[in-house]
Design brief:
With 384 residues, the protein is α/β, with parallel strands linked by helices. The protein has two domains: 3-186, NAD(P)-binding Rossmann-like Domain (Rossmann fold, 3-Layer(aba) Sandwich); 194-384, N-(1-d-carboxylethyl)-l-norvaline Dehydrogenase, domain 2, CATH 1.10.1040.50. The chain has helices at residues 16-27, 39-58, 64-74, 81-85, 99-112, 128-132, 166-178, 195-211, 217-226, 233-240, 242-255, 264-271, 305-320, 326-337, 343-347, 352-365, 375-378, and strands at residues 9-12, 32-35, 75-78, 90-93, 118-121, 141-146, 155-160, 182-186. The longest helix is centred in the N-terminal third of the chain and has 20 residues, at 39-58.
């Protein structure tokens, strides 16, 4: 199959990410078949696409003719999985981050989609290889991790499973470019891939700080906002979903190291139904929209180098394992996290002894093995 042979896309899941990925494909000229398990979910996804198109028309970003064509001709919605995938060239799975659920979906997709069709997962953390193993076409299974919101964010991590064919990686990379996105290759299948894996370490740091009551969420978020981040770590956790963070933490803890597991306060929030933005309450109250973070409350008791150092350290693990290059780390973090510069670029300005000492302090103070300096950090290799 070539790029010209890709005509129709199916998106499995019409939620936050699914409807956004469908819209991206629609705007790139592809007919899209949008699936979800019930009519309410499908209709909600379609409404969100139409509303987004209307906003872009008003802002002059999309011609009114294109928006009307998408609404009347290009978008088809259904609750019948076979109807969704039986006549498409690419299927993008966008169901919740539960590996067993994804594996079940891939088994069904393999039986229903045409033999030539590529089966892609938008998973943000989980094994492409395990999903591919549920099919009779593991060479045609690949990860395409879009970032939220897909219509705005440029990054797509293109993740190779252990059995993914080279030509499929090349084809999907070109297809992502046709969607007006920037593909960054993930050369080996690893939990969290690039951005979420690198950001997992500072997330653990922020979580343990809150867990120990060393800082409250708002002073911490306010401080991180003053460093130039568009959103603080606790607000980001609410935005992503506290249940998602707990599930991802459990997956990382199983596959990488127990230190990545969610702390008790997050688990308790899930148990009491506080899931963040989606439930209206998490670290913050979302019932009236995005919470207002009082920047005047920014803490003065936090070293802003700490999250950067653990980020660089985590990135070095990926580079040592051959998962990505130094340049790919910075490109992915800038495009996927809204950072002004990538961690490896910052690392070139940091003295080796300072980073080693600070990482050793964090590892000891919080009893976190994952903060211990890597071989690359110990040798100063991150500066090259």
């Amino acid at each position: 199959m070539t790029l010209d042979d890709i005509h129709t896309i199916a998106v499995i899941g019409a939620g936050d990410m699914g409807h956004g990925i469908a819209e991206v494909a629609l705007l790139a000229g592809y007919p899209v078949r949008l699936y979800d398990i019930n009519e309410e979910a499908v209709h909600h996804g379609v409404d969100r696409i139409f509303n987004s198109l209307d906003r872009m028309v008003k802002k002059g970003k999309v011609p009114v003719e294109l928006a009307e064509q998408i609404k009347s001709q290009r978008l088809f919605s259904t609750t019948d999985l076979e109807e969704a995938v039986s006549k498409v060239d690419i299927v993008v799975e966008v169901v919740p981050e539960v590996l067993e659920l994804k594996k079940q979906i891939f088994r069904k997709l393999d039986s229903l989609a045409p033999r030539h069709a590529l089966l892609l997962s938008n998973t943000s953390t989980m094994s492409i290889t395990e999903m591919g193993n549920m099919t009779g076409r593991p060479g045609q299974v690949l990860g395409t991790h879009f970032f939220n919101p897909p219509v705005i964010m440029k990054l797509v991590e293109v993740i190779r499973g252990d059995d993914t064919a080279d030509e499929v990686v090349q084809l999907v990379t070109r297809w992502v470019e046709k969607l007006n996105k920037v593909p960054v290759p993930v050369k080996k299948d690893t939990p969290g891939f690039i951005v979420n894996r690198i950001n997992a370490a500072p997330a653990v740091l922020f979580q343990v700080i809150v867990e120990r009551c060393e800082l409250e969420p708002e002073p911490l978020d306010a401080f991180m906002r003053t460093t130039g981040l568009p959103i603080g770590p606790c607000e980001l956790t609410d935005y992503v979903g506290i249940d998602v963070m707990v599930n991802v933490g459990a997956y990382f803890a199983e596959k990488l190291h127990p230190n990545y597991g969610a702390p008790s306060h997050l688990i308790k929030m899930v148990e009491t139904g506080k899931l963040g933005k989606k439930s209206g309450q998490g670290y913050y109250d979302w019932s009236n929209g995005r919470p207002r973070i009082d920047l005047s409350k920014a803490t003065k008791e936090f070293n802003p180098q700490f999250p950067i150092f653990v980020q660089i350290n985590e990135a070095c693990k990926l580079i040592e394992e051959g998962i990505c290059s130094v340049d790919d780390v910075d490109r992915a973090i800038v495009l996927g996290s809204g950072a002004r510069v990538g961690p490896m670029q910052i690392g070139r300005t940091v003295a080796k002894l300072e980073m080693v000492n600070q990482l050793n302090f964090l590892a000891s103070h919080y009893n976190m093995e994952i903060f211990k300096p890597t071989r690359t950090v110990l040798e100063g290799g991150y500066k090259h």
